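The records we work with from here on pair a chain with its fold. Taken together, the tokens spell out the fold as the letters spell out the chain. To see the layout at work, look at the sequence and tokens printed below.
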Amino acid sequence: MKKVTIKDVAKQCNTSVRTVSRVVNKDPNVKKETREKVQKAIDEMGFQANAIARSLKDKKTNQIVAFVDRHQGLYWGAFHNEVLQELHKLAKDQSMRMVISSSSADSFEEDENDGFYLVKHSLCDGAVMFDTKPGDQRIDYLKKHNVPFVIVGKDSANYDTPFVDLDNKYAGYLGAKHMYDKGYRKFDFLLGDSAFNVNQDRLEGFNQFCEEKGLEENATHFDVSSMETAYHLTKEIVKNKELDGLFVSGDERALGVYRALNELGYTIGKNFGVMSIDNVRMSEYIYPPLTTIDQSIPDFIEQAFDILMDQIKDKKTVAKRIFITPEVVERESL
């Protein structure tokens, strides 16, 4: 099907291209009758105005891209959903559009269905990057194209990269410490993909505390990527190892742990403890309510957005690197 152009609309309405452009740009000086006729033609013909082209006067697209790693498939989970909601609200408050693009730290495309197409062709003002790995080539790509960006997470390989991140090393340490202080001694740690910075840092903190206390039997299990994985792994671990608790990297994964423990006859918070990291909204409403480490999602994302906006306004802005201090939210699962 032939793409409808602004010239086609003008011809259909027997008017000038300039008049159609004024209608598209909501010029108040266009007569009501003319506006209605042109708008009707636009709707019927399926003409899509190039919003980017309309904004070229001030060299701004009023559009940002949020890149989320596709390692979790098309469903990104409760944590990513909440942070993307917060980011969308902040962008909307600034009259900006947000495009969500699923990408990969290992490889990415530049076709029209991928956010890097927007980066390559200067069709966005900036980008927010989630889920990075050491040496992530997507970061080099953004730098190559001189696009303002901020990482939600940490980039360990580049010291001039702006990011906002939970102090994940301390989060791993704090979780182990809190379980220990509550009387737990035999608890393992369930984590996601070991290649991601967040999991490497949490592991380091967890191991540090366990070494300090001589908890040599407390193991770490990687690649726990979903509720389903957590469910099956919990059943396997608990049946073959004497444990009194599990520390889980991610509230949503803890749901799988809950189900497995219930099926095995444990009473969470009584004869088996569960603790997690995130403090997404649902963690308060499962039973028993989940003790978790708060990431302060609204503050977290607001600071990341502010860093991005500062760079969009002035690309010479010095890169900021901010760590959010984790805090325990005590509920009833320990």
